[in-house]
Automatic annotation (TrEMBL):
Coiled coil regions in record: none
Protein name stated in the entry: ABC transporter ATP-binding protein
SUPFAM superfamilies: P-loop containing nucleoside triphosphate hydrolases
Keywords: Amino-acid transport, ATP-binding, Nucleotide-binding, Transport
A molecular function (GO) term: ATP binding
Length: 245
């Protein structure tokens, strides 16, 4: 579904990604972990067309999409849910959902998708006329996730979906991701809540100093002592490039 081949890139003259390579299959959840500043969010920006790629390739299926614009990526079925709160606080839940489909040529279809998405998230139907700011943090995150589904994406890039949420809300957001994966969507996420995220993921990626250092089954990474070492501030010295399911 998504492949990065030795991607190098950065902001202006600053290089942040120094060789990122991985391949993730359709209908899977992959969690990307690594120390602060490793370049995890930058990987998302590279995929979504928000970063200058110096070399390497990004492929969606068989199609090369390196350097395409966010609009083109959306047209390919990719959505990006950035870190933080990204709902429009004074607009209603319904209006926020409509914004997710604003680029679609067929607005009648968008309205149908809103109904379908509200079926998936009954809370949103219940609060459809409330201002987004009146929702709890977890509900706002669910609204964002729901909005990202308006264009029926194939690949969702999700940066820290659980940040600032209570444990119950984290569970709800994670359940949502599992449901999405089970409906055929491919998810790549970054999570500080690494253990819980790896536990629900199919694959895990470790990024360090802008390079992929490990890529393996999520369960294997969870029990790998080097991953523990990394979270304690150590460094991974060996590359592991096993890709299985
Ligand atoms: N717009 C920008 N311009 C210049 N440098 C940037 C920009 N955004 C991020 N960086 C730098 O890129 C590096 C990687 O940042 P990035 O946000 O990708 O890391 P991260 O692994 O997601 O970190 P965290 O876990 O702290 O969110 C950092 O050194 C950061 O300062």
């Amino acid at each position: 579904m998504l492949e990065l081949r030795n991607v190098h890139g950065g902001y202006g003259k600053i290089t942040i990604l120094n060789g990122v390579s991985f391949k993730i299959p359709k209908a899977s959840i992959t969690t990307m972990i690594g120390p602060n500043g490793a370049g995890k969010s930058t990987v998302f920006k590279a995929i979504f067309g928000l970063l200058q790629i110096h070399s390497g390739q990004i492929l969606l299926g068989d199609q090369e999409v390196t350097g395409q614009t966010p609009r083109q990526m959306i047209a390919h079925g990719v959505t990006y849910v950035p870190q933080g709160r990204n709902v429009v606080p004074q607009l209603s839940v319904y209006h926020n959902l409509e914004l997710g489909g604003i680029t679609a040529p067929n607005q009648a279809k968008v309205r149908q998708r809103i109904e379908a998405v509200m079926d998936q998230f009954p809370m949103l139907r219940e609060f459809r006329n409330r201002k987004a700011i009146e929702l709890s943090g977890g509900q706002q995150k669910q609204l964002e996730v729901a909005r990202s589904l308006l264009l029926d994406p194939k690949l969702v890039l999700m940066d820290e979906p659980s940040i600032g949420l209570s444990p119950n809300m984290v569970r709800e957001v994670f359940q949502t991701l599992i449901r999405l994966r089970d409906s055929g969507v491919t998810i790549l996420m970054v999570e500080q809540n690494a253990k819980a995220a790896l536990a629900l993921s199919d694959y895990g990626l470790v990024l360090e100093l802008g390079q992929t250092r490990m890529h393996d089954n999520a369960k294997k990474l969870l029990t790998d002592p080097r991953v523990g070492q990394l979270f304690l501030g150590g460094h991974v010295h060996e590359d592991v490039a096993v890709d299985g399911r």
